[in-house]
Automatic annotation (TrEMBL):
PROSITE patterns: NDPK_LIKE (PS51374), THIOREDOXIN_1 (PS00194)
Entry superkingdom: Eukaryota
Name of this protein: NME/NM23 family member 9
GO terms assigned for molecular function: nucleoside diphosphate kinase activity
């Protein structure tokens, strides 16, 4: 029996300076997923990379991943809450894409690959760039030390909301489809973390529904397997991010969603309550509180004017998170909550 041809890894993990220099010497275009150790490489784009590798071949298109904390050259990318993709050709930086934006990634890969082919075939000058977004004045996402303490703080100047792709959608393999639809609808995915929620987290998260008959079923479902926790911002349009996300989700009940908003995510991917595929914050105040609970290290600029009324929840959450040790302490004081809060 003939020996099988050795399979080429889709993404090479670059963990040392020597491997980094070897990567830079590769002929063609190399796309590097720069990630943080606490969240790992960006999984939603793997299917795109696989498709591009099959289409283009491995000779001129390469994919790599590198943890920012492992390489001095990536020091300024440490602590960023959104994925960063660096494009290298001829050992030089030629493009940067921030966020798990598959359509933009594919467009950039195609454009930069064609440009590099012209450089190699015709001797054209390679267009080299600097990552200007890392300048102190323009930096949107920053990693800070809180008064010399160990807590890592990640910040965003954009208005944000929480999105959860629930276990029912994840177990049926719909995560990538839903993420693609989110991006196509004009959202920026600042963070995408796969996590299996604990019972304690979900009892606290859904405490406003503790008196309902469906409470135990809801908590059990949310702890039954991995979810994808996303922090969303808006890249286009005038509609605020919370309202835009709730519109894309559709009504809570998938049966109602299929009748009233058949193009919504819950209509397409939900089955019945509580298996409605996705969760979204009810309003801006809820978004802040839910993010504080599930992403204690995430800090963002004040999204609600001081004159604006509070949302439907009066709970306040203070959290301390140490990503190195992987624990957090949350203290929650509540409990006045109006009706209509989303699942």
């Amino acid at each position: 029996m003939g020996s099988k041809k050795k399979e080429i890894a889709l993404q090479v993990n670059v963990s040392t300076q020597e491997l980094w220099e070897e990567m830079l010497s590769s002929k063609g275009l190399t796309v590097v997923d720069v990630y943080q150790g606490w969240c790992g490489p960006c999984k939603p784009v793997v299917s795109l990379f696989q498709k591009m590798r099959v289409e283009v071949g491995p000779d001129l298109l390469h994919f790599a991943s590198a943890e920012a904390d492992c390489l001095d050259v990536l020091e300024r990318y440490r602590g960023k809450c959104e994925p960063t993709f660096l494009f290298y050709a001829g050992g030089e930086l030629v493009a940067v894409v921030r966020g798990a934006n598959a359509p933009l990634l594919e467009k950039t890969i195609r454009e930069q690959l064609e440009a590099e082919k012209r450089v190699l075939a015709e001797g054209r000058e390679r267009r080299v760039i600097k990552d200007e977004a890392l300048s102190d004045e323009d930096e949107c996402f920053s990693h800070e030390k809180n008064n010399g303490d160990d807590e890592d703080l990640v910040s965003s100047e954009k208005a944000c909301t929480l999105a959860i792709i629930k276990p029912d959608a994840v177990v049926h393999g719909k995560t990538d489809e839903i993420i693609m639809k989110i991006q196509e609808a004009g959202f920026d995915i600042l963070t995408n973390e796969e996590r299996t929620m604990t019972e304690a987290e979900m009892r606290l998260f859904y405490q406003h529904r503790a008196g309902e008959d469906t409470f135990e079923k809801l908590v059990h479902h949310m702890c039954s397997g991995p979810s994808h926790l996303l922090i969303l911002a808006r890249t286009e349009g005038t509609e605020d991010v919370v309202t835009a996300w709730r519109t894309l989700m559709g009504p809570c009940d998938p049966h109602v969603a299929r009748r009233e908003q058949p193009d919504s995510l819950r209509a397409q991917y939900g089955t019945e309550m509580p298996f409605n595929a996705v969760h979204g914050s009810w309003d801006s105040e809820d978004a802040r509180q839910e993010l504080a609970l599930l992403f204690p290290g995430f800090q963002f600029s004040d999204q609600i004017p001081e004159s604006a009324p509070l949302g439907k929840s009066s709970r306040q959450i203070w959290s301390v998170f140490n990503p190195q040790w992987g624990w957090c302490v949350s203290v929650c004081v509540c409990v006045v909550w109006g009706g209509g809060v989303g699942y």
